[in-house]
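FAQ: What does the model actually see?

It sees only this:
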Amino acid sequence: MPNLYGFEVKHATVNEIDAIAEITRAAFLKYCEAARISTDIEALNETFDDIRRDIENKEVYVAFIDNVPVGSVRIEILDGGLAHLSRFGVREDQRNNGIGKILMNVVDNRMKLHNVKRLELHTASWALPLVRFYYGRGFYVESVENSRGYPRALMVKEYK
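And it is asked to produce this:
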């Protein structure tokens, strides 16, 4: 049987900035709704140059189906075996079909390659589908804080 579609995850380039912005915007509008918070958050206010800087300074990945960008994630590798995951999103029409899991598998492989021992991310503790997703990928809630005006969980995944 022939392949029904082509799937690929690759490092982002400046050519994908518009798609990354669109994916991030849609994902974080949904995030704000799930978290019951204002849409005045950093992820919804980033510029073309902000995304370009992330591509230059972080590991940014884009998932494609049939050459159409459908998901993205950013990872900042820090000193001391630490990394921070941010701006994870999948297009709404592609959610719940494994794109997020595949992106997270790429993240896991990259963390191991970089000898990362601890991967952190923040997510709204009220966004139960996200918390469940991250739990399913091996993260746990280390703490909850309210510095941005809503309860944000610090979720951690440890690598051996």
